[in-house]
Amino acid sequence: MTAPTTDTRSRARKERDDVLAGEAPLSPPPLASDVAVAPVEEHLRRLQRRPLALAGVVENGVVRPLDPSVKLTERAQVIIVTSEAAEG
Fold first, then answer.
1. How far is the C-alpha of 13 from the C-alpha of 16, rounded, in Å?
2. Which has more confidence, 39 or 85?
3. Whole-angstrom distance between the N-terminal and C-terminal Cα of the chain?
4. 60: alpha, beta or left? (left if phi > 0; alpha if psi -120 to 50)
5. What long-range pairs does 13-16 form, CB within 8 A, spacing at least 24?
6. 54: which residues sit within 8 A by CB, 6+ positions away?
7. CB-based contact 39:12 (threshold 8 Å)
8. Cα 64 from Cα 54, distance rounded (Å)
9. 8 A C-beta contact, residue 50 and residue 77
10. Can you list the positions of beta strands (E) in the chain?
11. Sign of the CA dihedral 40, 44, 45, 46?
């Protein structure tokens, strides 16, 4: 469990978060009655390409790996991990 930290969100961001938290949850998407329930891991096992976790930065929605030798395909699945809180 992480230690609690000071809330650094702006007033506008806090208000927006409160509005979103107050909305009703989305209903599940309509599925056929014969669809079997499966965990996400099962879905990922069926994929040809696996998600890739790597160190990098995201600038304006573009992922840029820190290692210049890494080349991503156009529709690569990338897991982004950050060590600092995102500003917003």
1. 5
2. 39
3. 24
4. left
5. 13/88
6. 65, 66, 67, 70, 78
7. no
8. 10
9. yes
10. 52-53, 56-59, 62-65, 78-79
11. positive
In terms of pTM, does the model score above 0.85? no
Cα four-point dihedral sign 7, 8, 14, 16 = negative
Instruction: Give the per-residue pLDDT at 19.
Output: 92
Partners of 58 in beta bridges: 63
Q: Give the pair of three-digit tokens for residue 12.
A: 């506008």
Residue 87: CB atoms within 10 Å: 8
CA atoms of 76 and 67, how far apart (whole Å):
16
Alpha helix stretches (DSSP H) within 1-88: 11-22, 40-46
Residue 15 has what pLDDT? 92
Tens of pLDDT, residues 23-81 = 998 888 888 888 888 887 787 777 666 667 777 777 787 777 888 888 877 777 777 66
Pairing of strands 56-59, 52-53: unpaired
